[in-house]
Amino acid sequence: MCYTYIRTASLASNATLIGSTEVVLTVLFAALFLGEKLTQAKFILAIISFSGVFLLLGTHTQGAMKSSLVGDLLVLLNTVFAVI
Fold it and tell me: Where do the domains of the chain lie?
């Protein structure tokens, strides 16, 4: 049911960009929850990756409707649960 709502409430480009943060979230959650060493290089790459995703999403969300933002948040929530 949630997947069907995401398909209608979010743009495919936004869902792809948000979903691509799964690798970065995996590195960060591994450091937070599993005690894996987060090196400076990993931290810098994570910030660069998040910055790129948000820069690309920023151009689409300036005039977006509320339903698009809700869909994007659902995709982000789905990505976080996939990492956990």
Answer: 2-83
